[in-house]
Amino acid sequence: MKSKILIFALSSLLFLQSCDDQLDILPEDGLGSATLYQNDAGALAGLSGVYSRFVAAYRESILNAMYPSAVTDEGFENRSVNRFFLENSFASNNAQILDSWTLLYEGVYAANIMLAELENSTGISETSKAVFEAEARFLRSYLLFELQKNFGGIEGIPLPTENTLKQLLPRTKGVDVYAQIIADLEYAEQNLPRIQEATAGRASKDAAQALLARVNLFRAGAPFTNDGDYYTKARDWAKKVMENGYQELNPSYEDIFNKLATEQYDTKEVLFQIGFYFGNQDQNQSNKLGSTIGMRVDDGSCNNRGYGLISAAITLTEAYRNDPSDERGLWNVSPYYVPNNNNCEFRTQFNQTAYPASKYRRFLESGGTGSYGPHHFPVLRYSDVLLMYAEAENKLNPGSAAALDAVNQVRNRAKATPLVGPITEALIQEERRLELCFEGLRKYDLIRWGILEEKVNETKAALQAADGSENTDWPIYGSGSPATRTNITENYYLDGYNNYVDSKHQLLPIPEQEIGANDLITQNPGW
């Protein structure tokens, strides 16, 4: 199997569907250890079904990509009509909220079934069981982490395990949810293979270490407190990745995303990615990443449309332009787009306040149709590990030279001007924005730092101030003679910022339908 790439679902769609369908059946309904989980091949089939649930949770590219960028100092949703829950204008009965909740819990449920079946199996060796269990627990931990970040807070989320498959559950306190997530990941770290030995696209020891660094940082931050030395744990897990001797920064920032667009695995830089697959014009395992949050392509004949639904915050654009040597600037926030009827050639967009996020470039995709394609999504990158290390190390040792060095490794790869120091918390936070924008992290970072409201207000003010200003990119990148080169801040760019209520919008509401079906659950504040 290691010689073949597994794209979170097996290449054979028929095999995937048969496994996936079987996972809907409870053990007592016929799919018990006497059938699927009696050998390694059967367990692999079950695991493939768990991965397919994992992929399904993210194929619309909302919760993992658009929502964490919207209404932040990274970007905003740029449509005049309310789209999903990207403008802080929705209620607890919103269909997309329910979809996100349901799909994430379906993945948790599938992992729990697998764990229960492995426990009951008599046909699989204990050694193999440990590896399969580790992979299922890795996936469960990631999905629970997503649920906790979005819906949990102090009060937490319902926490189903392999021992509570059919029970209605109350909310479990957030600290206890994190305890389960960390326990799952520590087990995975002990029992998964190194990334060099793992099948491409699947969980590994290295990915578990990096995710442990991230989870411990979140446990240390708001709304929680560092009451268990979590910064030390985060630093040590990140350092373990740094000392593995395998991970390294790709010399080219651009190449990371070229590879993701063309379904490749760069395991030295990207420790874990959500792999999507598009075959035989089937969309079930594909996603909308390139069409929703990537470079704008108006002409669908140029290898499919790119809608560019998320625009970069003007403060992010300006931060890049203030350091012209930083190669990330024109990759992540490009003034170029592909208009209709222009022979698929680029043109310069006149309105600097509305540049779409351009990190994901759909015209590089090898397949796809309509809004869906096979663009992979980066979950954990080595540059993130370096910045997590810097953050935790600086928390423990303010002004740390080691933290400064880690940040400058990231900046040097991008050819950005190195920081002289001393390193500060604010500089590290800004570096995360410059390096990791539009990778599904920013809103959650701002929440755990306790500065989301501050950045919402700053970004709104900057957008308002930019209205009527001159597009400063035009003398460098512009072409042709548009009627105007004056920036325009449309009123609807501000909708999400105007609607933001700090006491309410740090969490999504638990779906109304879930509240109605389970009277053990209470709603989040403000909803």
UniProtKB/TrEMBL annotation:
GO terms for cellular component: cell outer membrane. Residues 64-217 form the SusD-like N-terminal domain. CDD domains: SusD. The keyword Signal applies. Coiled coil: none annotated. Its main location: membrane. InterPro entries: SusD-like_N, SusD_RagB_dom, TPR-like_helical_dom_sf. It is found in: Cell outer membrane. Keywords: Cell outer membrane, Membrane, Signal. Gene3D superfamilies: 1.25.40.390. Residues 336-527 form the RagB/SusD domain. Belongs to the SusD family. This is Starch-binding associating with outer membrane.
